[in-house]
Amino acid sequence: MEHRHLGRSGLLVSEITYGNWLTHGELVAREAALSCVRAALDAGITTFDTADVYARGAAEELLGEALRGTRRESVEIATKVCLPTGDGPNDRGLSRKHVLESCHASLRRLGTDYVDLYQAHRFDDRTPLAETLIAFDDLVRQGKVLYLGVSEWTAAQIRAALDIAGQLGLRDRIVANQPQYNMLWRVVEPEVVPLCEAEGIGQIAFQPLAQGVLTGKYRPGEAPPEGSRAASGGRAPTFIRRVLGDRLLHQVQELRPIADEAGLSMAQLAIAWTLRRPTVSTALIGASRPEQVTENATAAGVRLDDALMRRIDETLGDLVERDATKTAQMMAVKADWAAPAPVAAG
């Protein structure tokens, strides 16, 4: 496993990050989740990503349990705050109250005194950016957070945060952005990536396999294979079906000869492609079985040449989405996510 700097910060992260969205505490049983984390550690993965909202906190608890006994300094733990964690009016967003309370709750669930990276899971236009940034800065000064990041923010939102942090004289700034990014979904390339490159912000690219679509296991005209996310319960099928379509699935199958020539599985090809892109510090993978972790981790260190990258582009053609206005669309929550819960009369 190779490591890269997270943006221009001094923090080194493994080229592959193990994440537990839609798996731990939801689709994957406890023992399988623990086995996946052990497989990640065995593969040399040192960076782990979760969020307070995943499985209503159970994902953080399982990750903390899985890492128990591992030397804390040998791993990098990232979590997030913003999305609703309860029904109260302040159980969401990026207010000082919710940021501080959620951080403390995450630390308890993870069983650690600090997280290496704390990320704003979404942008909150109902809270002044200055309030959020000062709360984050206070957590850094208290030693509870080492580095700061955002997820699915637009270039304008990141720019505004950097400007306000500078105006306030905050010493701790954003060093990471976590966007959805893969061969098919490249909406961060026109605006977000150039800004991040200029400002030294590294990408933690999630869904490099496009919810498994780029592994080639979903075939046009066929039902999803048994045991796949698209055939499972919970929320996973809803997310996956957004990117399923016979034309797309047919073209994805055309990537198989390219992967074969490179001596890679289709999953490894997709992850290696992501790691080849500008400003990407790490590719974030999830898994329901330890063997998936082992296979995908071997994409670290693979270097795809320019000719192969061009063949991928030619194969996918106009199926690639590059519209910058869709930066957060695929993972956007409902427009009223930040609306406070109804207050009881009296």
TrEMBL record:
Annotated keywords: NADP, Oxidoreductase
Top-rank taxon, per record: Bacteria
InterPro entries found in the cross-reference section: K_chnl_volt-dep_bsu_KCNAB-rel, NAD(P)_OxRdtase_dom_sf, NADP_OxRdtase_dom
Residue intervals of the NADP-dependent oxidoreductase domain: 15-314
KW NADP (keyword) present: yes
Protein family (similarity comment): Belongs to the shaker potassium channel beta subunit family.
Name the UniProt record assigns to this protein: Aldo/keto reductase
Organism per entry: Plantactinospora endophytica
